[in-house]
Queue: 3 jobs
Job 1
Amino acid sequence: KLIEMPPGFTTGEIRIEAHDKKGSMLGTLTINNTNLALALVEEGLAEVYLSCSDRTLITAEKVAKENKIGV
C-alpha cells in the first residue's frame, strides 16, 4: 500500500536493534536524518529509560532538565 508523505518529508528509517525481555522491539526511528528519540528528549518531550545505555540520549535528557525545557 502506498502512503502519501507529508510536505517536507524526505526519508524515514526504522532500525530494530534488539528485543527486550517482554519481546518488544527496541530500535531507532530516523526521519530526514534526525533521530526522533533524541529530538524528543532534547525538547523535554520524552524521558530516557533507566536501563538506557545510549550516552547521547542520557546527556540530552540531563541538559533538557538543567535548562527546564519541556514538560
Job 2
Amino acid sequence: ERIRRINTPILHIGRDHDHLQGIFKLAHEWMVEAGKDSTWASFDHPAHGYPFIERGADGFALAGAAFHEAP
C-alpha cells in the first residue's frame, strides 16, 4: 500500500561493500515490482552516506565522482 502511493521517480543508491546493501537493493526491487520508476546504482566508496556534492579546497561546491557516475 505504501509503495502504491509513490509517484516520484526514485534513485536507490547503494555502496558496493555496505553491510546494508541487500535491504537497499530489495527496496528498489519492490518498487520495480509495483511498476514504479525506480533506478538502482551502486558505487565503490569508502564512506557510508557519501555525498554527491563535496566542498572543494576553495570552499565552493564540487561534484564528486559518484555524481558524475550516477544515472
Job 3
Amino acid sequence: ALKAKVRLLDAFDYRGVLRRGYALVWSADETRLVQRGAGLVPPDEVTIQFQDARAVAAIRSVKAAREEEKP
C-alpha cells in the first residue's frame, strides 16, 4: 500500500516530465509558469527549465498555433 502511494506521488512530480524530455517555460523572474505563448511579445525574456539546466531566452517572434495543433 505504501509503495503504491509513493508511485502515485512520483507520478505527480514535475521532474518526471523533465526526465522524459519536456521543458518548463518560466517568466523571466521565474515566479510563474508561462502557460500560453500568445501572451509573449518580443523582446520578452523567459527561463526554460530542462532536466539538467536552465536557459534564458529572448522571444524573437510568436506565431499562433494552427487549428490542428491546438489541444
